[in-house]
């Protein structure tokens, strides 16, 4: 419950907003954030604003967790430990739907063209584009091979090679984007373009995955981590 002081402040602010239009325009401009401030004061919450680079980087977090599932599968293949190959299939489906068809499309449609137009980091962008295409092909191969990998030794061998090449490429790929490309995005777009880009990302995410699309993908990956045995983060802590 808000305190008496908060309620008094709330009442005072509402009185200001309801006053006749004798307040000068600059004064009204100063009140433009009153609604947000009152909401934060009463509820203790502040609307989350995610910048375009932050949005893309947290999507890389989803990718990195899928890579961890892939690596857990590789360890099981290496030790001849039986497990359901559907876990690999479901991981590849997340890569296809969320990374290839959404995240990378966002980069290709909104981010890369800005750098190309500005003539900056064009060699890096060209390499990233080639790797996007390669990643889609490898993901299709993983989806094709995974269902038969339990019983077909040749399919399993090819699947292992495909997963290894995927992990090997995407670790440095995402790292270069996070540390070299995304931090420079503000240098090649206007502030209006920057804000509009974030809105475009959110709109497309909602179209493809519904409300809280990112959170839904994280939940799907977490379920796969649980099933393949890597959900407990503490298991990765070195023991002495």
From TrEMBL:
Record keywords: Signal
Organism classification: Bacteria, Pseudomonadati, Pseudomonadota, Alphaproteobacteria, Hyphomicrobiales
Signal sequence extent: 1-29
UniProt xrefs under Pfam families: Hemerythrin (PF01814)
GO cellular component: plasma membrane
Gene3D superfamilies for this protein: nmb1532 protein domain like
Superkingdom of origin: Bacteria
Protein name in the entry: Hemerythrin domain-containing protein
InterPro entries given in the database record: Hemerythrin-like, TAT_signal
Domain annotation Hemerythrin-like: ranges: 53-185
